[in-house]
Specification:
single chain, alpha/beta, FAD/NAD(P)-binding domain, 2 domains, seven-stranded mixed beta sheet, five-stranded parallel beta sheet, globular
């Protein structure tokens, strides 16, 4: 790499989101010195709460804190962005033009929201008719729009490919339908849910109760479909069949649309040697069990930017972080991997203002409930309380401190 290598750290972590901070905190607790976190943002978000913000069940302010308040004490916080990595030279190029060198590298920059992959979406967002809970500033506008809707067509979309919190696109459809039902207007609203897969959920044990939720609300599901264009001014969405690409596109008129953008690894990751060349989304190519890079043993990746074929959730990070830290420490000592990740992820599927199906599963995929004595394949009030209050409490007070 060209440029001046200005600093060296024993461990460099790219990204100060959920994954990066959790790993940093665990490394400090393991008495690893000289850990640096590269993160430009002054604010840190608990994004799983944004679906509830969009449904009027939580405030946007409760999902954000200053990054300085959650950055583990003892790490070097580098307020910059990574734009490239030379793994052979063990160097990271920063947006400022400076370089960092490292002994071990953890790549956790999160996922990129490709808004422009849906024609017309960037221009339509926030116009009162089109919104998305995948942006902090737009989630409150989702609530404003759905509570004003008294009749017409409400469209909820999910793109093909891996996305963070794959349950979020349908959760807001259920929360909105519950709100409209409790206000006596659901029968006047046509609710359309566009899904890329052939089933509502990839784990059959959880798909069955969700199908009952869909039936209860009278939601019209378009399976194996995607939205390719949005005209927010006219209120028209263009739908394409994924099962029959030769089928003509359909134009669907709507009064409100919640749109989830396609997602991929950050562009600089795609362009780097770290990416998985076989995957157009360009995620960091790691071993699905050890979380170590397939070609450079001193590089690890976790969270949304990694190539592991699990659901991209904060719950997955909670199980991946101990594996990364244990194997990074083993790599420092010249030893083989010490821990293995089984693909665990959790998706709290909120189905009403006070009900939730807590879907926990692994690579197989098979259900892996934290509380096996409870029936998790049905809507539960206690799991809604866990989602709304328990998980944020655990996140801020334990997970980001390396304690959970």
């Amino acid at each position: 790499m060209d440029g001046k290598r200005s600093r060296h750290h024993r461990v460099v972590i790219l990204g100060g989101g959920t994954a990066g901070l959790t790993v940093a905190a665990r490394l400090l607790r393991a008495k690893v010195d000289d850990v640096a976190v590269v993160e430009p943002s002054e604010e840190h978000y608990y994004q799983p709460l944004w679906t509830l913000v969009g449904g009027g069940l939580a405030s946007a302010g409760s999902s954000v804190r200053r990054t300085a308040s959650v950055m583990p004490r003892g790490v070097s916080w580098i307020r910059d962005s990574a734009v490239g990595v030379d793994p052979d030279e063990r160097a990271v190029l920063l947006a400022s033009g400076n370089e960092l060198s490292y002994d071990q590298l953890v790549v956790a920059p999160g996922i990129q929201l490709d808004w422009d992959k849906v024609q017309g979406l960037p221009e339509s967002l926030g116009n009162g008719r089109v919104s998305s809970n995948y942006r902090f500033d737009l989630a409150p506008r989702t609530w404003d729009a759905l509570r004003r809707l008294r009749s017409g067509t409400a469209l909820f979309t999910m793109p093909p490919g891996a996305i963070k919190c794959a349950g979020a696109p349908q959760k807001i459809a259920y929360i909105a339908s519950d709100f409209w039902e409790r206000n006596g207007v659901l029968r006047r609203i046509r609710v359309v849910l566009v899904l890329p897969g052939a089933a509502v959920f990839g784990v059959p044990e959880f798909a069955k109760p969700l199908e009952k939720v869909i039936e209860r609300y009278g939601i019209e599901v378009r399976y194996q479909s995607e939205v390719t264009a949005i005209d927010g001014e006219k209120g028209v969405a263009t739908l394409r069949s994924l099962s029959d690409p030769s089928a003509p596109a359909e134009e669907l008129e709507f009064d409100f649309a919640h749109v989830v953008p396609p997602q991929s690894a950050p562009d600089w990751v795609k362009a780097s040697p770290l990416s998985d060349a076989a995957n157009p989304a360009g995620y960091v190519e790691v071993d699905r069990e050890t979380m170590a890079h397939m070609r450079w043993s001193n590089i690890f990746s976790l969270g949304d930017a990694g190539s592991t074929p699990n659901s991209k959730t904060g719950a997955a990070v909670r199980k991946q972080a101990p594996v990364v830290v244990a194997n990074l420490l083993a790599q420092m000592r010249g030893e083989p991997p010490a821990k293995f990740y089984n693909g665990y992820a959790s998706c709290p599927l909120v189905t009403a203002h006070n009900r939730c199906i807590m879907a926990e599963f692994d690579y197989v995929p098979k259900p892996t409930p934290t509380f096996p004595v409870l029936n998790m394949q049905r809507e539960r009030y206690d799991m809604y309380l866990v989602k709304r209050y328990g998980l944020p409490l655990m996140y801020w007070n334990f997970m980001l401190r390396g304690l959970a």
